[in-house]
Amino acid sequence: MGTILELAPNNQLANVEARVTNIPPDTSQHQSSLIVVFLTLQLIGVVGSVFTILIARLSLIKRHLTWYNFLASWVISGTSYSLLLFAGRIDLSGEADFTVPFGLCLFQSSLIYAAPPLCATTMLGMVMQIWFKSHSMLAQKPIRSYQVLTKIVLVLPYVLFLGIFIEALVFGLSDPVSVRVTGSGMYCNSGLAIPGRISAGVVAVVLLPVAVFEILIVISLRKHWSTFKNSDNTGSSRVNVLSMVTRVLLFSIFGVLALGVSLFFFFTIHHGAALNIVIALIPVIAVLTFASQKDLLEVWMCWNRVKRGQSSRPLYPDVVSTKSESILGSPVSVYRKDLPPLPV
What we know:
Blueprint: E1 3-6, H1 32-58, H2 65-81, H3 83-86, E2 98-101, H4 102-138, H5 146-174, E3 179-181, E4 188-190, H6 193-223, H7 225-229, H8 235-267, H9 273-291, H10 294-307, E5 319-325, E6 331-335
Parallel strand pairs: 1-2
Antiparallel strand pairs: 3-4, 5-6
Helix pairs in contact: 1-2, 1-9, 1-10, 2-4, 4-5, 4-6, 6-8, 8-9
């Protein structure tokens, strides 16, 4: 049971001698039910992330670009893992003569090694942004070169993504035989251990400072809690700040899980189909964590009512704008109930 790659008949690269050990796929992992679950979770992550981004654009509470970057990275990741599905090349039967074009398999293989570092780095950028603003607001000590650092954390994920993609592509072209559909039948990868270890190693290195910044955020909030509680920010603004910080910290639990998985991938090449399901759950959890924010749910519910013709009211009848700034450095909205009473 396995999957054959369609190599071009005149492909000279097929004769290139492999410089690293090529490990064959473990076809005993092929289960059609797990393939369906894996791809379903990936599609939920893609659609959910796109939907959350669109809804957030309609919200009065403006998010920082690092927040959008984080969700966009899961769109790229889920799309990468679903390429065989989009191309109609998913083998649920496990037939030995099922074929996948070499170019498609090589492209997906390179993408899936580049996607995890992309997601990890965008998460680092989002956590760093929260730390920058919370430190500046609570400790009254502006971060030097803040604008430069912000641009770096926005661009770095894609530079890293491109670099690892090219690295995996080079390994695949230097040893075409190593590019194959995994034994689980879920996606293409390389039979060489090096691309996977580079990807897993980068993820582990990136997620370590994520944990450090999250600890610093908690320490800063605890140390300056009285300042934060008595600040000029409105009640809704403080709730928005705490909500975002709480969600980031909760999602970081799964970041620790991802760190453990990355280390496991670093030392093994056959990790089993069931572990792929755990990996596919991470983008779904990210969507549920960040799409369930109150203002986004309100936009969705109001949009639904307007679409059905059940209401002609504005999306935010009880919300007014304010010039205050949240921890994320963006304008926030204030509910009318939080405003002081008008003079009689």
